[in-house]
From TrEMBL:
Annotated function: Plays a role in vesicle-mediated protein trafficking to lysosomal compartments including the endocytic membrane transport pathways.
Keywords, comma-separated and alphabetical: Autophagy, Cytoplasm, Cytoplasmic vesicle, Endosome, Golgi apparatus, Lysosome, Membrane, Metal-binding, Protein transport, Transport, Zinc, Zinc-finger
Signal peptide (from-to): none
Gene3D superfamilies: Tetratricopeptide repeat domain, YVTN repeat-like/Quinoprotein amine dehydrogenase
Provenance organism: Eleginops maclovinus (Patagonian blennie)
UniProt-listed GO biological process terms: cellular response to starvation; endosomal vesicle fusion; macroautophagy; protein targeting to vacuole
Lineage of producing organism: Eukaryota, Metazoa, Chordata, Craniata, Vertebrata
InterPro entries: Beta-prop_Vps41 (IPR057780), Clathrin_H-chain/VPS_repeat (IPR000547), TPR-like_helical_dom_sf (IPR011990), Vps41 (IPR016902), Vps41/Vps8 (IPR045111), WD40/YVTN_repeat-like_dom_sf (IPR015943), WD40_repeat_dom_sf (IPR036322), Znf_RING (IPR001841)
Record membrane topology: Peripheral membrane protein
Full protein name: Vacuolar protein sorting-associated protein 41 homolog
Annotated stretches, region: Disordered: 1-30
Length: 853
């Protein structure tokens, strides 16, 4: 159970005896004692009843007085009604009329602004009075009173009050609640509901525990809406819904009936009920001998929020209230009234009035801060920043940062600074100095503003100096991440130089110094450091800042660091570093020169052609596998020089290629067979040259070498007639795999025959197809009209007068002539040829159509 707090003005008496339980569950309601004029009233008198309107409160006392109060408890009006206890005050919905009844039988109904109304004295106490909710309207001037009888008063058209008895004979009436056309009242037997519109009594809800005295444990009634009545009596709660009866079932029954949708028992005695959305607010009286409560909390009233279910309820929250003189009070001394408009709940006791209200977002944040749930409080404030009144998002954030610092979670505290401090530069600087004081500048360094919003340069320099003293790696990280304009670059450079005097080979400091030089646009110094360190960023620095003029004398250093990257960079920027200049720099390092020239040759065979002669020796010395491809692709290297180098180094394959390229194929073939002794390569060489004399030399050399003969038999079948070789084989010579070689020769021969036959069939079929196509084409008609001309005289092919006789010759080539324009027949009588096609030495076309008329 949560402690009750007063809110705006704490009362020492109200809080001294309150329980303070460390609960992780947030209370649903907050409490405030109604003070001001109420305090003075209850010091001399005691509250007996109270009615709540959205605009004001009406309080009745044991000494027969009625006070109208504002929401803060200030007295606005006072009425002397009686000298004894006021039992009930009733207000209509407009708050313009009030009904009052007292223990001495007085009943008064009057307008608060007119004072005209009903005044009557009865000979017995009147316990309750209720005005029609629309009493202000002339046709609803009705009210009911309850004592031993339930009496209805109506004002007729003569402006006189007419009384009628609605119910009697079941003991004293203790409670009446009027909603729309329904009047609910409670007596000793149970609860009844009366429909004033149909003038019918709808139902009777019996009292469960008849052993309890009705005057000591009165019934609590509350309308949730126009059709839902909540009944609390003793420890029992029932929720009743008024429903329309089906017309077919009416007969003599009322037009409405009541269904009890929920009924359950509670732990304690009910002193009051009020709805809260779909939940219930219940005021409990706890008897002193209750076994469920500790001794310190017996007789202390409780205000619970419960969720009603069909046969039970679920407790949502429970608060024990320390009201004044609670130990002297009974169940009948407490009342619970509520204001529907603002969800305010008033707990009335003889000497105290406490207001309970739903907690707002400010209260929620208060609770989170009290429980040190700062992150949730900050999130709640950010979400509801437009609705909170007592809190400031930044102040909550600062409290959160302070809490994290106190816990020692410096990194989280620094991270929150970004979100909380925002653009407030003064707060940022204060936090930086605070982190410096506690020795945690490193924690906040990575979260400092570094964009458009910036602190003073001295702040950043202070942090850099701190890192430089204790953490070189962290210092280097900040230099990489922070823009150079955040701080005085020269001051930091000097500080780094001072540290390098003590540790001149420290790579981290040297790298960072190079970056600082880069920020300061002193690229030559940065380049010098990068080359010294062989740093991978040296190439990026050269490209980015166009430092090619600075590396002319550092090409060897770049090549030693990374040949591939260096050569690619040099070749990509030939316009800035010429090939001649690079070759000159690499003259003393031939192995590096070879790498450069090789890549240059790969990109373009003609670039660097004047260095091809030098490249022959470089390839021979450092890269023989690429020498032969170079000799094949280069058209600028001197063959005699290349042959000399290859012969000196006994490079047979390269020498063979050069000899063949120079036309000395016979010597090249001889080297293959004598020095390489590779018959397959010799045969391949002979195939490439396709020279009959070369084949003859190969056969003559191989005729006394059985392995060579086998190789020739297996491979020359398609180039040389194998019979020539077979006839020259000496009798009795053993030749390895001779049978297999002969079989292969026969198979190759059969394959050639099959290929020829297949080709012949295809050729014949194609020829026939083309002949048929040509025949079909030549058999087609040819259109001749006025647009066509004679290819000889260039006149229109058709005469203007079609009635005259004419003769036209059209050839297959589509050239047309007047017959008289054609020359006489040639060597073949009766056959004519197109003069144009014959002149162009095309295959002559004979006439395909002769038109006569």
């Amino acid at each position: 159970m949560a402690e009750v707090e007063q809110g705006r003005k704490q009362s020492e008496e109200f809080t001294d005896e309150s329980e303070e339980e460390d609960s992780e569950e947030e209370p649903k309601l907050k409490y405030e004692r109604l003070s001001n004029g109420v305090t003075e009233i209850l010091q001399k008198d005691a509250a007996s009843c109270m009615t709540v309107h959205d605009k004001f409160l009406a309080l009745g006392t044991h000494f027969g007085k009625v006070f109208l109060l504002d929401i803060q408890g200030n007295v606005t009006q006072r009425f002397e009604i009686s000298s004894v206890k006021i039992n009930q005050i009733s207000l209509d919905e407009s708050g313009e009329h009030v009904g009052i009844c007292s223990e001495d039988g007085k009943v008064q109904v009057f307008g608060l602004y007119t004072r005209e109304g009903f005044h009557e004295n009865f000979d017995c106490p009147v316990k309750v009075v209720a005005l029609h909710p629309q009493f202000t309207r002339s046709n609803y001037k009705q009210f009911v009173t309850g004592g031993n009888k339930l009496l209805l008063y109506e004002r007729n058209w003569l402006n006189r009050w007419k009384m009628s008895v609605l119910h009697e004979g079941e003991g004293s009436i203790t409670n009446i609640q009027w909603r729309a056309n329904l009047i609910a009242w409670a007596n000793n037997v149970g609860v009844k509901i009366y429909d004033i519109g149909t003038k019918q009594r709808i139902t009777n809800v019996l009292r469960d525990n008849v052993s309890l005295r009705p005057d000591m444990y009165p019934c609590s009634l509350c309308w949730k809406n126009n059709s839902t009545l909540i009944v609390g009596w003793g420890t029992s709660i029932k929720i009743c819904v008024v429903k329309e009866r089906n017309p077919t079932e009416m007969r003599d029954l009322p037009s409405r009936y009541v269904e009890i949708v929920s009924a359950f028992e509670t732990e304690f005695f009910i002193s009051g009920l009020a709805p809260l959305a779909d939940q219930l607010v219940t005021l409990y009286f706890v008897k002193e001998n209750s076994d469920q409560m500790d001794e310190d909390f017996r007789a202390r009233p409780r205000l619970d929020i419960i969720q009603p279910l069909a046969e039970t309820c679920e407790e949502i929250s429970s608060d024990a209230l320390t009201v004044r003189n609670f130990k002297d009070n009974e169940c009948r001394d407490y009342r619970l009234e509520h204001s529907e408009g603002e969800s305010l709940f008033y707990i009335i006791s003889p000497k105290d009035i406490v207001v309970a209200k739903e907690r707002d977002q400010d209260d929620h944040i208060d609770w989170l801060l009290e429980k040190k749930k700062y992150e949730e409080a900050l999130m709640a404030a950010e979400i509801s920043f437009k609705n909170i009144k007592r809190h400031d998002v930044q102040k909550i954030g600062m409290a959160y940062i302070n809490h994290l610092v106190e816990k020692g979670d410096y990194d989280s505290a620094a991270r929150k600074c970004q979100k909380v401090l925002g653009k407030n530069m003064d707060l940022w600087e204060n936090e930086v100095y605070r982190f410096k004081t506690i020795g945690q500048l490193k924690a906040i360094s990575q979260y400092l503003p570094r964009g458009d919003l910036r602190l003073r340069p001295a702040i950043y320099e202070m942090i850099l100096h701190e890192f430089l003293k204790t953490d070189y790696e962290g210092f280097a990280t900040l230099i990489r991440e922070w823009p150079g304009e955040l701080y005085n670059n020269m001051a930091i450079v000097q500080a780094v130089l001072d540290h390098l005097k003590r540790d001149p080979t420290n790579r981290t400091l040297l790298t960072t110094l190079a970056e600082l030089y880069t920020y300061d646009q002193r690229y030559d110094k940065a380049l010098e450091i990068y080359l010294k360190l062989r740093h991978k960023d040296v190439y990026q620095l050269i490209h980015k800042h166009n430092l090619f003029s600075s590396i002319e004398d550092k090409i060897v250093l770049l090549m030693d660091f990374d040949k591939e990257k260096a050569v690619d960079m040099l070749l990509d920027n030939e316009d800035k570093l010429s090939t001649d200049r690079v070759v000159e720099e690499l003259a003393d390092r031939p192995e590096l020169l070879h790498v450069y020239l090789h890549k240059l040759f790969k990109r373009d065979h003609h670039k660097g052609q004047k260095y091809h002669e030098r490249q022959i020796g470089l390839y021979a010395e450092y890269d023989r596998p690429n020498l032969l491809p170079f000799l094949r692709d280069s058209t600028h290297c001197p063959l005699e020089k290349a042959l000399e180098i290859c012969q000196q180094r006994n490079f047979v394959e390269e020498t063979v290629f050069l000899l063949s390229r120079m036309g000395n194929c016979r010597r090249a073939l001889q080297m293959i067979m004598e020095e390489l002794e590779d018959v397959d390569k010799a045969i391949e060489f002979a195939k490439e040259q396709d020279d009959a004399e070369l084949w003859e030399n190969l056969i003559s050399y191989s005729i006394d070498k059985p392995p060579f003969i086998t190789g020739l038999l297996n491979n020359i079948g398609t180039h040389v007639d194998p019979i020539l070789l077979i006839h020259r084989i000496k009798e009795g010579m053993e030749i390895p795999n001779l049978r297999d070689s002969l079989v292969k020769i026969l198979q190759d021969y059969n394959l050639q025959i099959l290929l020829r036959e297949g080709c012949k069939k295809i050729l014949v079929a194609d020829s026939l197809s083309l002949l048929q196509k040509m025949h079909r084409t030549q058999m087609r008609g040819v259109r001749v009209d006025e647009e066509n001309i004679c290819e000889s005289c260039h006149a229109t092919i058709l005469p203007s007068d079609m009635a005259k006789p004419f003769s036209v010759v059209v050839f297959n080539c589509r050239h047309m002539f007047h017959k008289e324009c054609l020359p006489s027949s040639g060597t073949i009588p009766g056959v004519q040829f197109c003069n144009i096609c014959s002149a162009k030495k095309r295959r002559p076309g004979n006439g395909i159509l002769e038109m006569k008329k």
